[in-house]
Each structure stands twice: as structure tokens, then as C-alpha cells.
Design goal:
5 helices
Length: 121
């Protein structure tokens, strides 16, 4: 369940990153500044970080595979780095990072399912 919630949180990051420029292009500028607030970025990033820490290392001990972490850690790095990038690069870094995180969590869930460890980890 943790990995599904984490994948949804990463998906929300993607929607947020793509929605903000789309609203600006559509001329709905009144909403876009609200979507660019630091508190909103933090409210999306904090659950992503906490779910990564809570889920992936413990699951690695259960299924013994590194690949979910090898996807998620660079994904998290891209999300954090994207926050400090110019706007043109921020979207690309953040979307790529969120996709990597999402893939890491979904792969982790698949590994746990394969070994029927879903309820134990």
C-alpha cells in the first residue's frame, strides 16, 4: 500500500509540474502563481521523501533487490535539484525525477508481490 501511495504522490508532482506551465500558456495566470508557491512544493516533496525512506529500504531487506532504490534515489535527487533550477529546466528535472520515483515504487511493489511479501513488508 505504501508504494501505491508513493506512486500517486509522484504522479501528483507530475500533474503539478505540467499543469502550471499549461495554465500559464492558456492565459490563466491568476492560478499559476499559487501553483508556484514554495509551501506547495514542500507539501508535495515531504510525503515523497518520507514514503521513500519508509518503504524502499525496508522492502529491499525483504526482496533483496536494489533496482527500486537505484531508480528512486536519482529520482529524488532530480526533484530536489529541479527546485533550484531555472523554470525552463525545473519542469524537466521534476517530471523525470517523479517518473523515476514512481517507477521505483511500482517495481518495488511488483517484487514484493512476486514473493508474496506485500503484507509483511
Amino acid at each position: 500500500m505504501k508504494d501505491l501511495v508513493a506512486a500517486w504522490c509522484s504522479g501528483l508532482c507530475i500533474v503539478h509540474c505540467l499543469l502550471t506551465p499549461a495554465l500559464l500558456l492558456a492565459g490563466i495566470a491568476g492560478v499559476a502563481p499559487w501553483l508556484e508557491q514554495d509551501w506547495l512544493h514542500l507539501s508535495l516533496l515531504v510525503p515523497v521523501v518520507l514514503l521513500l525512506i519508509w518503504s524502499l529500504p525496508a522492502s529491499r531487506k525483504c526482496h533483496g533487490r536494489n533496482s527500486p532504490l537505484l531508480l528512486a534515489i536519482p529520482g529524488l535527487f532530480l526533484l530536489v535539484v529541479g527546485w533550484f533550477m531555472p523554470e525552463e529546466l525545473e519542469v524537466w528535472c521534476s517530471v523525470a525525477g517523479a517518473l523515476l520515483l514512481m517507477l521505483g515504487h511500482l517495481l518495488n511493489r511488483q517484487y514484493l508481490k512476486q514473493q508474496q511479501l506485500l503484507s509483511h513488508c
